[in-house]
Structure formats: C-alpha cells, structure tokens
Design goal:
- With about 80 residues, the chain is of the alpha+beta class.
- Helix content is about 45%, strand content about 25%.
- A two-stranded parallel sheet has the order 1-4.
- A hairpin with a 3-residue loop joins β2 and β3.
- The longest helix has 16 residues.
Amino acid sequence: MAVWAGADHQFAADSVARQLKTSAELADLIHQRLLMGGVYVSVRQDSILGWRATVVTAPKHAKAIQDRVETIAAELRKQFMLKD
C-alpha cells in the first residue's frame, strides 16, 4: 500500500480496500460476533471513526457489552465502511 504524507490521503488509500455495508449489515455483523441475546446494536455515521456502534441493553450489563462492541467495531472498521 502506498503511504502519502497527508492524513486525508492515507484515509483515501485505506478506504479503497474496504467494502461498503449498510448500518443494518454492520449491526448484524457485530451482533453475530457478540454471541449474546437481549442486546440491540445500532450503527451510525461518525465524523472521526467513519461509523460507531452503540448498544442498548439492561443497565447492569451496558458498560461491559459496549466495551466489547467497541472492540468488535474497531476490527470491522478495518474491513468495512458505512454506506450512506
């Protein structure tokens, strides 16, 4: 992969290799990797990360599950971009 001096150019080079997925497709991929029921995953556009996943679940487990979802999302961002 070519590396250019500007951050915008680096992002453009990286984004060429990643596939486009809808927010529903990304949420489904995250949910499959989470292997847990009773959890709703929402994906939305993020100006810094490209996209961000948010979890809605019982308050008792929300922090731990959100942390796990953020780890999964970081892995998936290497492969997928959010389709507008």
